[in-house]
Write a structure and sequence with these properties.
Number of helices: 8
Number of strands: 9
Bound molecules: SN-glycerol-3-phosphate, magnesium ion
Strand content: 15-25%
Radius of gyration: 17 Å
Number of domains: 1
Shape: globular
Structural class: alpha/beta
CATH superfamily: Phosphatidylinositol (PI) phosphodiesterase
Strand order of the largest sheet: 1-2-4-5-6-7-8-9
Largest sheet: 8 strands, parallel, barrel
Helix content: 25-40%
Distance between the termini: 15 Å
């Protein structure tokens, strides 16, 4: 199949160079040549989709507690850059709305990974896809939606069937083909160290896109490309050879 994504996709923006899932991380990714970025989105308690990987604030902000237990108003003032380096002090957690405006200005394509706290998968899928639908104009490349959670993908499909979807796994399950078919996904995203040439061949010959995370070695990326992998997610988009 023809994949909509280039070979190199910046992971959480360019997480090796700037604090993950922030606007400055997108600027950095664009400045070092990335054409697409992946980022994580989850809902606040009051249902605002924000860019955030973890369930809790502690690792990457100066706040405490669960995102799903806090309203956007209390999350908004937090510092999401200083943990990474003083240089990024005062960087904020972006809303999905803000991120999409920046991505459009930077001409970056987006793989939007939907994260969800248990029990809010449907709401998360609907909420994220609704914002994507509202913002994405015909001039930009359409976003690629992905998730580890099947219900998030089902809900995103209900809300915005026009966008491509991919299912994310760590280890590839034996019934991967049934899952991709059931979710009407265009591709599978897997941990690069869980893939071998034979499985890659099976997935590709079934007509699905195949992308691997998180690949920070150019040598490994080259091997995956030889196997036919369409894209790699990397924290260092400048250190992986661009193919297309
Ligand atoms: O979307 C690929 C990759 O980002 C999935 O793992 O934990 O980095 O979101 P994680
Ligand atoms: Mg992710």
């Amino acid at each position: 199949m023809k994949s909509p994504t280039p070979f190199v996709i910046g992971h959480r923006g360019a997480a090796g160079h700037a604090p993950e899932n922030t606007l400055v991380s997108f600027h950095k990714a664009a400045s070092i040549g990335a054409r697409w970025v992946e980022f994580d989105v989850r809902l606040t308690r009051d249902g605002v989709p924000i860019l955030f990987h973890d369930e809790t604030l502690e690792r990457t902000t100066n706040g405490r507690g669960k995102i799903s237990a806090l309203d956007w108003e209390s999350i908004h003032p937090l510092d999401a850059g200083r943990w990474y380096s003083n240089e990024f002090t005062n960087e904020r957690i972006p809303t999905l709305d803000e991120a999409l405006v920046t991505l459009k200005n930077l001409n970056l394509g987006a793989n939007v990974e939907i994260k969800s706290t248990p029990g809010r998968e449907i709401e998360s899928g609907h909420g994220v896809a609704a914002v994507l639908k509202k913002h994405w104009s015909n001039v930009s490349p359409p976003p690629l939606i992905s998730s580890f959670k099947r219900d998030c993908i089902v809900a995103a499909k209900e809300e915005a069937p026009e966008f491509h979807r991919a299912f994310i796994v760590g280890k590839i399950p034996p019934n991967w083909k049934e899952i991709l078919k059931e979710l009407a996904c265009e591709g599978l995203h897997c941990r690069h160290d869980q893939l071998n040439a034979k499985t890659a061949q099976e997935i590709l010959s079934s007509g699905y896109a195949l992308r691997c995370y998180t690949v920070n070695s150019n040598k490994r990326a080259t091997k995956l490309r030889v196997w036919g992998v369409h894209s790699v997610f990397t924290d260092y988009p400048d250190q992986i050879d661009q193919i297309q």
